[in-house]
Automatic annotation (TrEMBL):
The keyword Protease applies. This is Carboxyl-terminal processing protease. It comes from Algoriphagus alkaliphilus. Belongs to the peptidase S41A family. GO terms for cellular component: outer membrane-bounded periplasmic space. InterPro entries: ClpP/crotonase-like_dom_sf, PDZ, PDZ_6, PDZ_sf, Peptidase_S41A, Tail-specific_protease. GO terms for molecular function: endopeptidase activity; serine-type peptidase activity. The lineage of its organism: Bacteria, Pseudomonadati, Bacteroidota, Cytophagia, Cytophagales. CDD domains: cpPDZ_CPP-like, Peptidase_S41_CPP.
Amino acid sequence: MSETKNTKSQIRLPIILALAISAGIWIGATFAEPKGNQNDLRAALYKLQEIMTYINRDYVDSVNTNELVEFGITKMLENLDPHSSYIPARDASLAQSQLEGEFDGIGVEFGIIRDTIYVVAPLTGGPSEALGIQSGDQIISVDGKNVAGIGITNRDVFDYLRGPRGSKVLVEIKRKNQLSLIPYEITRDKIPQYSINASYMINNEIGYIKVTRFAATTYEEFKTSLALLQGKGMKKLIIDLQGNPGGYMGAAINMADELLGDRDLIVSQVGKVSQYSQKAYAFKPGMFEEGSVIVLINEGSASASEILAGAIQDNDRGLIVGRRSFGKGLVQMPIDLSDGAELRLTIARYFTPSGRSIQKPYDSNYGAYETDLLKRYEHGEFFSADSIKFNDSLKFQTKKGRTVYGGGGIMPDYFVALDTTMNSPYVNRLFNTDSSREFILDFVTKNKADFAQMTLDKYYTDYKVSDAMLMELVEYGKKNKVEFDAKGFNKSKEYLRVLVKAHLGRQIYDDNAFYKVINDINEVYVQAMNLFGEADRISMATNLKVEGVE
């Protein structure tokens, strides 16, 4: 019989788990858990310690203890609810930067085309722009290490190019019409990320603001956008939350406060622990409390998007247009763990001002929860409001007496069916592969001089995407193994024309150009433009139930 010798990790493991037990007891004491619960916690943690010790010492194969624990944590949280989650240390900083609104890096928007990092655009004010890095440049090496043709992923690019502000990174760039690689030593800096992607005047009265997520900087961006639009004469406002997955609740609350009157309830939060139960009210004079408001939502609008939409709807401040939102009304608290990982633990539920729970139902079958949107699509909900059946026990009243329903998500005041008539699998393949990105980059590079003197307004009103351009894109598709489909092409030709113009506009100008063009075929946006009379009727009425407006 061979002698078994304890490794350092075997010695450390009971110590670590003992510390975990101590921490668990301390947390229990902090929240004044009943004594029985504390005993249950001790017993559960001791059981975990026993099992992990046996696995580490006696299991037939060697195991990575940390990976095993992380797997166990993930499965444990999945048993709680669909949104409690664990983010390993290696991913926590990236996840946090997406909410903070800024990160440290070299300042480029990139894409991976043919297994090579392409610079889609240097970010305005960033170090790459200052050094002269251009759209279409290919990053071939980073700090002397080849990064082209090695199967690089987005995660790899973040690891290579992001880093502490003030640190330096050497990249070698391949540029069209240049025979040799161009070296750049880039000093990383703080790079802002914007959560309001577009803000512009649609006409002399109507302003448009596209909010893509709710980050730490969103509220300040929103105020800046409001001020600029009001300076241009805005009297009516469209807030576009379609596809916005949410983010910081505080950003949504502060934005609602700029639109709602004093002491209007914005959202309620109810948790098991009293400190997590609270209500948020409008409390200060808002920048846009009087003008007409329409909020656009769809099945991709979740969490903080639903807080803002629910506050506008339940206070009868404006009109909600689109399709039923996602239905995420569980509140996660981010908890930094000692090794740099992050626990996002559900600690409360959101309720709209009328008392509706935003969260859609869920049980232990999270597969069904995750495929809910597909089931809605197959059931016909995206195409007909009549397919949605409401439970009368979940009937609520808005501030002025309109009937609204709970049961998960925000049902719009005005339903707009999803329009799929122009779409085709062929167009999706063209725009979900390298084909469209490669074509756009090359076309802008070749025609840069033609666009140099063209204003955005001129581009929007006058520029035409020719048939020759579409056929050129088709050839790029063939090079990327997207087989030409004449039927799909002919069905979606005009849609394809709009897509190309929108993506070209983004590359030449900014996201304002993209949304100005693409919104012309966005069915929710198009319908909303005709509904400001209804929005005014809701916000100006005194008692909508008596007037029969529901």
